[in-house]
């Protein structure tokens, strides 16, 4: 198998899998609560590891099962009822659908911002309660200039909620430098943590440590939390900047490979890249790659990012997302099979 779909789910490293399996075996051997007592110190360290990853205060780190679960929990803490709410056009579809429902139910107003960042301040109002945006877009992997956006004049009461699901583990994420008020992100993608793990950060304007403690479920899967600790430790030891450079090199190699096939790739400073084909051809190519054990993604932009620009009518998007465990040989194999299918 050649796995090129980290933007959906990364492959946990052997050390992460061992941490999960070892604790599960310990639970079976000595009992759940007895096993828990032996790892309390390790569990207490996970927030500190996440804080190092985000350049944050460990007391302001919380955990949940998915990005969406953490995001929805934070949403309930925002003073959005009857307010003006803004969202980037690339905001994740589930988030937008929740915001529309919440705005309709509370007499608020959701406005989708234009793609031109310089035009955003003109849409800020004194009653704008929050701005929602991703750090990296899901479909094309575009890195948004969040720090630049946050440096623009904005109302004092406007909170900024950042979705970093496509960023954690592949690019540096510094919540202090970014200037956001809260951040959420799954850890199963580029960070290669276990499925069912996510983290969030709540800044002082959103209640800080008190919010993080209150929104973190007290009942959770201990084995997965230990696996997450190992995944973060691995990423920190490797160095996020080192990982970024490795992933970027693979992305650039893939861009060149696609260009040699006469295809244009939408690549944006991160590991994911997308390209379009006529729908029937995209289906044939996707199936041809899968038949050879090459795993990529066929996203649904209309569902994933419904407010963003969609592919031309009759075209379908395919997305490639290599991670640190991939190689240029993997990309070459992908390009060979793709070329044969065209």
Automatic annotation (TrEMBL):
<dbReference type="InterPro" id="IPR015421">
    <property type="entry name" value="PyrdxlP-dep_Trfase_major"/>
</dbReference>
<dbReference type="Pfam" id="PF00266">
    <property type="entry name" value="Aminotran_5"/>
</dbReference>
<dbReference type="InterPro" id="IPR015424">
    <property type="entry name" value="PyrdxlP-dep_Trfase"/>
</dbReference>
<comment type="similarity">
    <text>Belongs to the class-V pyridoxal-phosphate-dependent aminotransferase family.</text>
</comment>
<dbReference type="InterPro" id="IPR000192">
    <property type="entry name" value="Aminotrans_V_dom"/>
</dbReference>
<dbReference type="InterPro" id="IPR020578">
    <property type="entry name" value="Aminotrans_V_PyrdxlP_BS"/>
</dbReference>
<feature type="domain" description="Aminotransferase class V">
    <location>
        <begin position="5"/>
        <end position="334"/>
    </location>
</feature>
<keyword id="KW-0808">Transferase</keyword>
<keyword id="KW-0663">Pyridoxal phosphate</keyword>
<dbReference type="GO" id="GO:0008483">
    <property type="term" value="F:transaminase activity"/>
</dbReference>
<dbReference type="InterPro" id="IPR015422">
    <property type="entry name" value="PyrdxlP-dep_Trfase_small"/>
</dbReference>
<protein>
    <submittedName>
        <fullName>Aminotransferase class V-fold PLP-dependent enzyme</fullName>
    </submittedName>
</protein>
<keyword id="KW-0032">Aminotransferase</keyword>
């Amino acid at each position: 198998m050649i796995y090129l779909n980290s933007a959906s789910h990364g492959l946990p490293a052997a050390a992460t899998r061992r941490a999960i399996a070892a604790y599960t075996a310990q639970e079976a051997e000595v009992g759940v609560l007895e096993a828990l007592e032996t790892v309390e110190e390790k569990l207490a360290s996970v927030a500190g590891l996440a804080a190092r990853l985000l350049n944050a205060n460990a007391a302001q780190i919380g955990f949940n099962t998915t990005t969406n679960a953490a995001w929805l929990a934070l949403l309930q803490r925002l003073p959005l009822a009857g307010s003006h709410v803004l969202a980037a056009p690339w905001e994740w579809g589930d988030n937008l659908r929740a915001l529309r429902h919440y705005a309709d139910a509370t007499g608020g107003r959701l406005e989708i911002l234009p793609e031109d960042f310089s035009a955003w301040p003109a849409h800020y109002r004194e009653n704008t309660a929050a701005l929602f945006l991703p750090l990296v877009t899901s479909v094309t992997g575009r890195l948004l200039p969040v720090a630049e956006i946050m440096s623009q004049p904005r109302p004092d009461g406007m909170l900024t909620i950042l979705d970093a699901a496509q960023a954690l583990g592949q690019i540096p994420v510094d919540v202090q430098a970014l200037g956001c008020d809260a951040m959420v992100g799954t850890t199963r993608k580029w960070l290669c943590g276990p499925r069912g793990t996510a983290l969030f950060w709540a800044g002082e304007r959103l209640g800080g440590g008190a919010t993080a403690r209150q929104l973190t479920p007290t009942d959770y899967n201990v084995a997965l939390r230990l696996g997450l600790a190992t995944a973060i430790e691995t990423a920190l030891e490797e160095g996020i900047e080192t990982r970024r450079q490795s992933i970027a090199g693979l992305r650039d190699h893939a861009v060149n490979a696609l260009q040699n096939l006469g295809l244009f790739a939408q690549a944006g400073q991160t590991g994911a890249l997308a390209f379009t084909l006529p729908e029937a051809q995209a289906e044939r190519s996707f199936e041809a790659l899968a038949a050879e054990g090459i795993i990529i993604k066929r996203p649904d932009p209309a569902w994933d990012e419904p407010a963003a620009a969609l592919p031309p009518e009759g075209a379908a998007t395919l997305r490639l997302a290599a991670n640190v465990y991939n190689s240029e040989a993997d990309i070459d194999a992908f390009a060979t099979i793709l070329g044969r299918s065209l």
